[in-house]
Design brief:
mainly alpha; 8 helices; elongated; membrane; Vacuolar iron transporter; iron; iron ion sequestering activity; transport
């Protein structure tokens, strides 16, 4: 009698291997679906924004100079100056911005700590909040490096081409490809629509280069 009861209990509480594997797979998918992709927003925003700005601003600057001066040295020097100035500007701007955010969050943590101390719950959750604080230096370095990477694309595309029209075409082709890649990468990492993100960045870059080239060409043609 007892042996029959034991076997029934084992049959009741044991699960087949297939069910266990299916249950584990379900948990993995639920963990992936529940992942908060907004946690990536800080470094992802700095990296994608920096790379896109480096690419578009440097290419636009080189196209603008190329509209009035066809010398390859002038385009390369203008692009390099744009890379250095832009990387420094991005780093400083990102550092100041994130540091301001850090000050706000630290002040909020102090208020929460005082409130918890008054209610006798001091220290609850403080360590976790400190780990989630933004890092101004990390954001600044990420922005500067990303900007430099983006700016290197048009520089490398124009560096070894003497023929003016071929050089302009090479810069346009390289920048177009890089814009699509940056748009796709940002969308994939942030789980956003890929086509919409790539198209938005691509047309924005084209517009920036066209306006810079056209206005510089117009001003150069009237002798200003």
């Amino acid at each position: 009698m007892s042996s029959n009861q034991t076997s029934l209990n084992q049959a009741k509480f044991s699960l087949p291997n297939n069910d266990l594997e299916q249950h584990a797979t379900t948990l993995e998918f639920e963990a992936e679906d529940n992942f908060d992709y907004s946690k990536r927003s800080q470094w992802l925003r700095a990296a994608v924004l920096g790379a896109n700005d480096g690419l578009v601003s440097t290419a636009s600057l080189m196209m603008g100079v190329g509209a009035v001066k066809q010398d390859v040295k002038a385009m390369i020097l203008s692009g390099f100056a744009g890379l250095v100035a832009g990387a420094c500007s991005m780093a400083i701007g990102e550092f100041v911005s994130v540091y301001s955010q850090l000050d706000i969050e630290v002040a909020q943590m102090k208020r929460e700590k005082e409130r918890m101390h008054g209610s006798g719950r001091e220290g609850e959750g403080i360590n976790e909040e400190k780990e989630g604080l933004p890092n101004p230096l990390q954001a600044a370095v990420a922005s500067a490096l990303a900007f430099s990477v983006g700016a290197m694309v048009p520089l490398l595309a124009a560096a070894f081409i003497r023929e003016y029209k071929v050089r302009i075409g090479a810069v346009l082709a390289a920048v177009t490809f890089a814009l699509v890649v940056f748009g796709w990468l940002g969308a994939v990492l942030g789980k956003a629509p890929v086509l919409r993100s790539s198209a938005r960045i691509l047309f924005g870059g084209w517009m920036a280069m066209s306006i810079t080239f056209g206005l510089t060409k117009l001003i150069g043609s009237i002798g200003l």
